[in-house]
Write a structure and sequence with these properties.
It comes from Flagellimonas profundi. By secondary structure, the chain is mainly beta. The chain has 3 helices and 40 strands. The strands form 7 sheets. Strands 13, 14, 15, 16, 17, 18, 19, 20 and 21 form a 9-stranded antiparallel sheet that branches. Strands 32, 33, 34, 35, 36, 37, 38, 39 and 40 form a 9-stranded antiparallel sheet that branches. Strands 22, 23, 24, 26, 29 and 31 form a 6-stranded antiparallel sheet that branches. The longest helix is centred in the N-terminal third of the chain and has 21 residues, at 15-35.
Length: 726
């Protein structure tokens, strides 16, 4: 406006000159039109400057999207709406932020920051829904770039059907670096197609969550791959590997609960191609390598001097590996990889026995290329078929054969069968039948003694030809189904066990012999019952050769794994009850007996004519009444009946959403009760005063009931008669 005003106030005497200049311009234009075409001369045309290409994140407004996984997610201009779970006493947050380290494999501008504060559940995480079911027919691998605060953390990717969370599949990967971008791969199968439209992510899955942590991730994409065979369920060992019995003074142990281990830098190097999990089997630490192609184990900081050793030993268990290779690498006197004096050798074990522990006891002389053994710094396991096998590893050590013992150095495994289901002949774990003669004079050459081994009383048969055991009175074992014996031998090649009833009538069971370790044998009594009268067992007999150690000789009936009778019917009058699940009452509406964030399998079954909820593979399961929240203000107790054959702990949590009736509001309250060592294989009636749920300070909007326990993911719990009462 100022400029316009100034032009308006100029001197009018200059106007005739302006008119003259305009006339000359018009005349010039007419002359030009007569001699040239309508286009300006080339020198008068200036092409426009091209617009610069937008940088990632520029030129777009960040929006909430429902992604199509096949298109990938780069999080530059949009991201999905997520839902959290497992916050408990902590909190979870997800933000789209500037890349903390735009280098290496990830130079993009915008990434996702996922923060977990202390006291969230070990299984906490988040999920978001996809635009359609995922198609794995062409691309089976999902890749995610991850920037983790620590190495060796499990990242679990799970897909679910948003309408039915029991339809799901999960795959784990492990971070290998910290403070650096890496790409993790999660392999699925063509048969997983058109099942899942929800993506669930867990960072530091089952970690301690004792301090705040932030994980960054980016670029979730599907990758083409060859045809991936559907994984075969091959299982997990249910018993630990046998304890080694070699003298500890002659052992250099890398990994074994039996010995003191030397320093190992890592059980999965960053150049490995496998997933590592540290698990426990009956309290025994085990390394689990899944999706195994090859895995490196390193002791570079403290190389192993195995010059005084004669053997390398490890125990392995697999359900699907068709070949296993073991390589040892010595870095030489300079202690450095590829320093010019490195030596190595790899051995191949074809068709290893499956679904059982196999002890590989290998003379170091078989590693012919390992010409020096003073600086062993690498151990490498390789599995075939590559990326499609799982191998469990225990008891990894070097030893000198001079330490091989001719007697056990550890006691036999401690039995776990409940005493009520046992008739015991010889065991420190049970009350044995009275008056048994363990060395009757039958003219045998066997020398019988009893020795204490690792604090455990043990029978020793030296130079066995045959040996009897005489009962003070006949045993009636007809109510039992199995006979159990633990044996150990260093030199026997034959062992048979007999039951004898009056007559005498006898028949034998032949033991498969394994030397140098405790072997537990469970024999069905049907092997004897065609000849032996199980109501009148008067003697036991063993024959064979060598020296045999025996322990835990007993008859037993395995406990039931499912209830055969219904829980006791409740007797509280219905007027004083708010029932969620019971045939004895009219039940209030329950939204679901298994939320989509649960980790359990639910079956509705009938036991002795009574409806029962069966939760198997139980880690935790949520039951929700969000649509019809329960007002238990006038109630005094929470009741549930539970039955389990394997849970060592059961936890029950009640959650009240508060007056706003919404999860995650400021007025949510909750409390969890723990039942340690619940009685097994019988219905337990839990009638818990609501006052015991001390954190449940309000009870007018109860919307969640959660069952959890131990061992997580492998227990089964049956539930009935779930109600509040006064």
């Amino acid at each position: 406006m100022k400029k316009y005003n100034n032009n308006k106030n100029r001197n009018n005497a200059r106007l005739p000159i302006l008119f003259l200049l305009m006339a000359i311009g018009i005349l010039g234009t007419i002359i030009s039109c007569e001699t040239e075409d309508d286009l300006p001369p080339p020198s008068a045309y200036v092409p426009p400057e091209p617009e610069p290409e937008p940088e990632p994140g520029d030129g777009c407004t960040f929006t909430t999207i429902v992604p199509e996984l096949a298109d990938g997610l780069d999080f530059e201009c949009g991201g999905p709406e997520v839902s959290f779970f497992g916050e408990i006493d902590g909190s979870l947050a997800l933000e789209y932020v500037e890349n903390p380290d735009p280098s290496g494999i990830n130079t993009s501008e915008t990434v996702v920051a996922y923060t977990q504060t202390p006291s969230v559940e070990p299984w906490s995480g988040f999920f978001f829904d996809l635009a359609s079911k995922v198609d794995f027919t062409v691309m089976q691998t999902v890749k995610i770039k991850v920037y983790s605060p620590a190495a060796d953390q499990i990242v679990l990717l799970k897909f679910e059907d948003s309408a039915d969370g029991s339809i799901s599949k999960e795959v784990q990967a492990t971070t290998t670096v910290s403070g650096e971008w890496e790409e993790l791969s999660f392999v699925f199968s063509p048969s997983d197609s058109d099942k899942f439209d929800r993506l669930v992510l867990f960072f530091d899955f089952n970690g301690e969550k004792s301090s705040e942590s932030t994980h960054y991730f980016d670029d979730i994409v599907m990758s083409e791959g060859g045809e991936v065979e559907e994984p075969v369920e091959t299982g997990t060992p249910t018993v630990p590997a046998p304890d080694p019995t070699i003298d500890p003074a002659e052992v250099i142990s890398l990994f074994s609960d039996t010995y003191t281990d030397v320093t190992v830098d890592t059980w999965r190097t960053d150049w490995s191609d496998a997933i590592l999990e540290d698990i426990e089997i009956e309290g025994n630490a085990v390394k689990k390598y899944s999706e195994l192609s090859f895995v490196g184990v390193e002791a570079v900081s403290a190389p192993i001097d195995a010059t005084g050793m004669t053997h390398f030993r490890t125990d392995i268990w697999t359900g699907d590996a068709t070949e296993l290779r073991i390589k040892l690498v010595d870095f030489g006197a300079d202690g450095a990889f590829d320093g010019g004096d490195d030596v190595e050798h790899e051995l191949v074990f074809e068709a290893p026995a499956q679904q059982e522990w196999v002890t590989l006891d290998i003379p170091l002389s078989d590693f012919t290329g390992l010409t020096t053994r003073g600086h062993i710094a690498q151990l490498i396991f390789v599995g075939v078929p590559s990326k499609a096998n799982t191998v469990f590893v225990d008891n990894v050590f070097f030893y000198n054969e001079a330490g091989v013992s001719n007697k056990p150095i550890s006691g036999a495994p401690v039995p776990t069968v409940a005493e009520a289901n046992v008739i015991s002949v010889f065991s420190d774990a049970y009350t044995n039948v009275d008056g048994t003669d363990f060395n009757p004079n039958w003219g045998q050459a066997t020398v019988v003694t009893q020795e204490v081994i690792d604090g455990n009383n043990t029978l020793k048969y030296e130079n066995l030809n045959y040996q009897g055991t005489q009962f003070a009175a006949p045993l009636d074992v007809s109510g039992m189904t199995m006979m159990h014996v633990d044996y150990w031998t260093a030199d026997s090649s034959e062992l048979n066990g007999y039951l004898i009833s009056s007559g005498p009538a006898e028949t034998a069971h032949s033991f498969a012999i394994t030397n140098g370790e405790w072997v537990s044998v469970d024999i069905p009594l049907t092997e004897f019952s065609d000849i032996v009268d199980l109501t009148d067992v008067i003697q036991l007999k063993f024959d064979g050769n060598g020296t045999i150690y025996l322990d835990n000789i007993y008859f037993y009936a395995p406990p039931a794994t499912e209830p055969t009778t219904a829980a006791i019917a409740p007797t509280v009058v219905e007027a004083d009850v708010i029932s969620l699940f019971s045939n004895a009452y009219t039940n209030v509406p329950v939204d679901t007996w298994r939320t989509d964030w649960s980790a359990a399998v639910l079956e509705d079954i009938i036991v002795d004519g009574d409806d029962v909820k069966k939760y198997s593979e139980l880690n935790f399961v949520g039951i929700e009444t969000v649509a019809n929240q329960i007002d238990a203000t006038d109630m005094t107790h929470f009741h549930t009946d539970v039955w389990t054959a394997d849970a060592t702990e059961i936890r029950i949590k009640l959650v009240d959403f508060g007056a706003d009736g919404a999860f995650g509001g400021d007025d949510d309250v909750e409390h969890e009760i723990t039942i340690a060592n619940p009685e097994q294989s019988t219905w337990i009636s839990l009638d818990i005063p609501l006052s015991d749920f001390t954190g449940l300070t309000t009870k007018a909007n109860i919307a969640q009931l959660i069952y959890a326990g131990q061992p997580a993911g492998s227990m089964t719990v049956f539930v009935d008669n779930v109600y509040f009462h006064k």
